[in-house]
Write a structure and sequence with these properties.
The complex is a heterodimer of chains A (579) and B (174). With 579 residues, chain A is of the alpha/beta class. Chain A contains 24 helices and 20 strands. In chain B, strands 5, 6, 7, 8 and 9 form a 5-stranded antiparallel sheet that branches. Chain B has a 4-stranded antiparallel sheet with strand order 2-3-1-4. Classes of the chains: A alpha/beta (579), B alpha+beta (174).
């Protein structure tokens, strides 16, 4: 694509092998050369030369004007998470740049490949506290995989190529490139070569075959092996290998919040979610297994609870691409570095077939306890008030478990991750590590644009929805056919739950007096419905899913429902509470 | 776990902004940097950071892991004092009259192998290079006489064990 554009330019410039263009135009060529055809952003003074070029290239590069720069980053994240490509967001200097920080931090902790481009004041003004100047490189350093400030147009091709390489290679992450305005205006001889490596950067460590053999031996000898898989499986495209391992060795497997959808939810050996609001069996039995096989997950504190009591009886095998994650929280008896697909492929021929039926039945017994105590009451409630779980159940039914579910942060997120069913990978998009309220609405926009042929349902609480509600403007303007479901309990539900359980019901600033969400959606010309009665739920969800346009659904749910099971902060995974 | 002195050696590309990234790793964990030196290394275009910290070994290992994760860091190590040969430099500015009036000052200079950098009407400057405890000891000896100014450099260190940066760099190219 960009080759074609460059060829066109070449004919204009006769026999020259390179072309003389502005830095701003060079940025566009770099994006096109990296296969980018969609970017999210917001213009402003210091990035105007780039926007001027975008105007010229709008037939090749679509720009989506989000209503806030934070929305641009979350949209880029949603796009990246479902498409597997690099998301791109662009903003001006100063406040434009600082508004990207939340999305950068979110992408950093959730390993999302993203390149953010910010305009910067002219290089002669750097450090002078000029209008809309901020040290965005300094500000974004802790929340980026890499960042760089360009002050000369001639630096643009190499730095842009490096940015994309770093963002998507190894453990992916966000990169920020800050470009001074004079570098955007200056002209130079442009040529582009994709980055193939960075001297000091080893994105994928080589697997150690001896350790793989050791792991295989332990897996074959184990009586109670247990797999916990995370997003590394999805990022490493190791879904098939994970499934083969689980089935061949008959090992029960559980997902972390970001590992969700790497395996079919209904697979008989897929036993649920680990972590604070995960399932009873996987959490309790973590402390009974004799071998814990962690694949592409990083032992987040929300997964482990109290480290002093976490899986102390088990040998631990850790498949991980990032060496810094090994032994960071949980000590691994064998750590296998590398890409999950590659390492699992090396492991699989060494694995013996097994069923572990007795061990698997332990999970079934625990599930029955959880079903009777919690799940049945949540998805088949008999009380008057609507539960969040029954809404998720109706979405599962109406979508045949085939929707991309995008969630924000809070009770609805935990309920969605507990009850949503998936039969395709890359279908769960949520803010796992940072817990960013306001993530879901813009991320759903990006997800829909990254997977246009799939249904995208954003499930959002009334609190988080209002943090980026302005992105309804994007949905309306571009007719992004996302389904927005606000589970409204008129509270900041998760904080209220903690206040109830741990702060003697002192609901400090968690009661929300909400606006008429339906009218707001209608104000953006989006079809909108409200459900507050169970008899209307199924038909309305079906109508929503049948629509091929944007659709807003507010469901008035129980105000003071809690999400259980729950591991209180600092408690052991085996101390998980069912009520 | 017991806290100890560690020297962290970091080989890196010589790029703007890397110091910010590395210092941020210490900041996030509330680790105070006792001394920091950045210079060229034995390899062309490769910089070496030498950071001295007082911490538990387990934390040192994790910090080194986080440092190595930075794109422009080639390799990082941590070492106990016995595993390194290190030096620090110091300058003492002292009133000139003490040099002539206090016999003990002259003994301190002689015994510590310090050198007199300059002498003027009002002050003289002593320089010394040595290990941490030698410099601490000299400070303690001079302090009772009055030190007008005192400044100490970051530690520089080489390790007794090999740090095979060249072969690591060669491996990156493969």
């Amino acid at each position: 694509m960009s080759t074609q554009i460059i060829k066109e330019k070449k004919t204009e410039t006769a026999s020259k092998t390179t072309i003389k263009i502005s830095g701003a135009e060079a940025i566009i060529h770099c994006l096109l050369a990296e296969g980018v055809d969609l970017i999210y952003g917001y213009p402003g003074g210091a990035i105007m030369p780039v926007y001027d070029e975008l105007y010229k290239f709008q037939d090749k590069l679509t720009h989506i004007l989000t209503r806030h720069e934070q929305g641009a980053t979350h949209a880029a994240q949603g796009y990246a998470r479902v498409s597997g490509r690099v998301g791109v967001a662009i903003a001006t200097s100063g406040p434009g740049a600082t508004n990207l920080v939340t999305g950068l931090a979110d992408a950093q902790i959730d390993s999302t490949p993203m390149v953010c481009i910010t305009g910067q004041v002219g290089s002669h003004l750097l450090g002078s506290d000029a209008f809309q100047e901020t040290d965005i490189v300094g500000i974004s350093t802790p929340v980026t995989k890499w960042n760089y400030q360009i002050t000369k147009a001639s630096e643009i091709p190499a730095i842009m190529a490096k940015a994309f390489y770093i963002a998507k290679s190894g453990r992916p992450g966000p990169v920020l490139i800050d470009i001074t305005k004079d570098a955007q205006f200056d002209t130079f001889e442009f040529s582009y070569e994709k980055c193939k490596g960075v001297r000091s950067y080893n994105p994928v460590p080589k697997p150690d075959l001896t350790k793989i053999s050791q792991a295989a031996q332990w897996i074959n000898e184990a009586k109670k092996p247990f797999i916990v898989y995370g997003q590394g499986v999805i990022l490493g495209q190791a879904e098939n290998e994970l499934k083969e391992l689980v089935e061949k060795a008959g090992i029960p497997a559980a997902w972390t919040i970001l590992g969700l959808s790497a395996m079919d939810t209904d697979h008989s050996l897929n036993v649920g979610m680990v972590g604070m609001h995960g399932n009873y069996g996987p959490n309790v039995l973590t402390n009974e297994c004799d071998l814990l096989i962690a694949i592409g997950m990083r032992f987040d504190d929300r997964v482990t609870g109290n480290l002093a009591t976490y899986a102390k009886q088990a040998k631990v095998i850790h498949f991980e691409i990032d060496p810094a994650e090994v032994n960071k929280n949980v000590k691994a008896d064998v750590a296998i570095l590398g890409n999950a697909k590659e390492t699992l492929q090396l492991l699989l021929p060494k694995i013996k077939e097994n069923t572990h039926e007795a061990w698997h039945s332990e999970f079934k017994k625990k599930y029955e306890i959880e079903f009777n105590e919690v799940i049945d009451k949540e998805i088949n409630p008999t009380k008057d008030g609507l539960t969040m779980a029954e809404v998720i159940k109706e979405i599962n039914i109406a979508s045949n478990n085939n929707a991309i579910i995008v969630t924000d942060v809070g009770q609805h997120q935990m309920v969605a991750c507990r009850y949503a069913k998936f039969n395709q990978t890359k279908s769960n998009v949520t803010s796992g590590g940072l817990g960013t309220m306001g993530f879901a609405l813009p991320a759903a926009i990006g997800a829909k644009m990254g997977a246009e042929d799939r249904e995208v349902v954003a499930i959002i609480g009334d609190g988080g929805y209002q943090m980026t509600i302005q992105e309804l403007g994007v949905i309306f303007q571009h007719q992004v056919a996302v389904k927005i479901v606000v589970l409204n309990n008129d509270h900041l539900g998760m904080v209220r739950q903690w206040q109830e359980l741990f702060f003697e019901r002192r609901y400090a600033s968690t009661v929300m007096v909400n606006p008429d969400f339906v009218k707001i959606a209608e104000g953006y010309h989006i079809e909108a419905k409200r459900v507050s009665d169970r008899k209307d739920l199924k038909s309305t969800v079906q109508a929503m899913m049948a629509s091929n346009k944007p659709y807003f659904l507010e469901v008035k749910v129980e105000k003071e429902d809690n999400v259980f099971p729950m591991i209180p902060t600092g408690a052991s995974v085996s101390d998980i509470r069912l009520k | 776990m017991e806290k100890k002195w560690f020297t962290i050696s970091i080989y890196s590309e010589n790029n703007v902004g890397l110091l910010n990234r590395i210092s941020g790793i210490f900041l996030k964990r509330h680790i105070n940097i006792e001394s920091l030196n950045v210079s060229k290394s034995e390899i062309q275009d490769v910089s070496k950071f030498t950071v001295v910290v007082f911490m538990e070994e387990e934390l040192a290992r994790k910090v080194v892991g986080q440092i190595e994760k930075q794109i422009e860091v080639i390799k990082a190590y941590y070492h106990e004092d016995d595993d390194t040969i290190y030096q620090e430099s110091v300058l003492f500015k002292i009133a000139s009259n003490l040099l002539f009036d206090e016999r003990q000052i002259q003994n301190i200079i002689k015994d510590s192998n310090a050198t007199i950098v300059t002498v003027s009407r009002d002050f003289f400057v002593l320089a010394k290079t040595g290990r941490k405890h030698e410099i601490d000891e000299m400070y303690q000896q001079l302090a009772p006489f009055g030190i007008m100014q005192f400044v100490r450099s970051g530690r520089i260190a080489v390790t007794k064990a090999e740090m095979p940066i060249s072969s690591i760099l060669a491996a990156f190219k493969k």
